[in-house]
Amino acid sequence: MSKNLEIKKQQVQDVQSKIERAKSVVLVDYRGINVADATEMRNKMRDAGCEYHVYKNRIFKLALNNCGIHDFDDKLEGTLAVAFSFNSEIDAAKILKEFADKTSLTIKFGLLGKNYVDDAGIKALASLPSKDVLMAKLMGMLNAPITQLCSVMNGPVRGLTIALNAVATKNN
């Protein structure tokens, strides 16, 4: 086998591994984005635990097919870049939406697990709050009834304290 074919097979295996590990995959048309914006975007991706790569469409198509995903062959055309989100489903989508709003970057589609998500679905995914924010809201909702119960239970004691203080200041 030629060395070039071996390199391509290795690339397909690497992409396949990333697809299988990723919680979400977002594909974008990166045409027209300048180097400064691309560098800033890659840095934000790296900080969020995501990866952003440009692959040949044929390599990415073979990796998808090896993962058992065959529905997107006709959508893989043009200048596509791929963002893999490993920590959270929304990290890559949030970063790409931010850059799509301020540059010529265009969100094409994505994968959530092995399911196709169109560009509107990716944008909706990007608008979700992070897991930490959702957990904080949930904890606040769970804590609210207990806090209110404590406040109600302290009401009579507070009232008695105020009355005793008023009597004590009146007698002095």
Describe the structure.
With 172 residues, the protein is α+β, with helices and mostly antiparallel strands. The protein is 60% helix and 16% strand. The chain contains six helices and five strands, in the order αβαβαβαββαα. The protein has helices spanning 3-21, 35-47, 57-66, 91-102, 119-126, 131-171, and strands spanning 24-29, 50-54, 80-85, 106-112, 115-118. Strands 2-3-1-4-5 form a five-stranded antiparallel sheet. The model has no long low-confidence stretch (mean pLDDT 85).
What percent of residues adopt helix (DSSP H or I)?
55-70%
Number of spatially distinct domains: 2
Gyration radius, in Å = 26 Å
Give me the CATH fold name of the largest domain. Alpha-Beta Plaits
Number of strands: 5
**How much β-strand is present in the residues?**
15-25%
Helix and strand element order: HEHEHEHEEHH
CATH domain class name of the largest domain = Alpha Beta
Name the poorly predicted regions: none
Mean pLDDT: 85
What is the H level of CATH, i.e. the homologous superfamily of the largest domain? Ribosomal protein L10, N-terminal RNA-binding domain
User: What is the approximate shape?
Assistant: elongated
Terminal-residue CA separation? 103 Å
